[in-house]
Amino acid sequence: MESVLTIGEVARRSGVATSALRFYEQRGLIASQRAGSGHRRYARAVLRRIAFIVFAQHVGLTLDEIGTELAKLPADRAPTRRDWSHLSTKWTARIDENIAELERLRAGLTECIGCGCLSLERCKFTNPDDRAARFGPGPRYWIGDAPLL
To answer: For residues 118 and 126, what is the distance between their CA atoms, to the nearest angstrom?
Structure first.
């Protein structure tokens, strides 16, 4: 018989709070069995699913997206390295987008982010009379709108 873990053991081993584990279970991302006392008992393989959830959140996936991905894993056995690899290869483009965004943020740290023209010296030329506001709220040029000439 496979060893089982209590919620406290899973929390200590995964680094995820027990409240988050209950939330993940409520969302259907992980599952537990109930002991005769009503306490949650988790299969050891749940640690892999939790690691996946934490990693996927760092990549930028929403909990709904994570649930969709986890649903692709086999229900009758612990996922293999190949199973995990299949899921993670689909994230390359998303990671590349995140890297590109972070590089843009790093490049703009010394510039004006507030108006979106990204230059205090050029604001009167690039964004006179706050023309960028026509595109909507936020740093419009920063998020990709072209300056009005």
So the answer is: 9
